[in-house]
Amino acid sequence: MTGENAVRLRPPRNAVDERAVTWWRWQLLVATAVPVAVLAVLGAFIGPARSWLLLAAVAVAAPGLACAAFFPAWWFRVHRWEVTDDAVYVRTGALRQEWRIAPMSRIQTVDTVRGPLEQYLRLATVTVTTASSKGAIRIEGLDHELAAGLAERLTLLTRATPGDAT
């Protein structure tokens, strides 16, 4: 593609839903709570190692809680997505940002996923699988109705887009 129709790297325009901050925070809290609970229970039952196990629980809990307090808001400011007639644009990451573009002609499948917490928060993740060795593009933290409409739109756009001969 050349000229006006060229697909180029540029910042996507759309932010994820604000409820994604809560979803990300809960994911981090659960990821922190599981090892902390295991260490605390072991500390309660293994007397000789109690102080070390409880210290380890605190050592896991402190950075986990800090991450849950800080990162979701940062991710919300960084994560962006956009779908045009030519491509899907996604920017993700906090410390290591990743920008990805999937031309419509390279899209193979479009899936919508809603885990239990996403269902509770009325969120969904749209996964765009391409012919890229880099893997699928995920647009997380979308309102579930927006995600369903986006999946339908992507399906229609890819059906109407001729395959890439390269």
TrEMBL record:
<keyword id="KW-1133">Transmembrane helix</keyword>
<protein>
    <submittedName>
        <fullName>PH domain-containing protein</fullName>
    </submittedName>
</protein>
<keyword id="KW-0812">Transmembrane</keyword>
<feature type="domain" description="YdbS-like PH">
    <location>
        <begin position="77"/>
        <end position="153"/>
    </location>
</feature>
<keyword id="KW-0472">Membrane</keyword>
<feature type="transmembrane region" description="Helical">
    <location>
        <begin position="52"/>
        <end position="76"/>
    </location>
</feature>
<dbReference type="InterPro" id="IPR005182">
    <property type="entry name" value="YdbS-like_PH"/>
</dbReference>
<feature type="transmembrane region" description="Helical">
    <location>
        <begin position="28"/>
        <end position="46"/>
    </location>
</feature>
<dbReference type="Pfam" id="PF03703">
    <property type="entry name" value="bPH_2"/>
</dbReference>
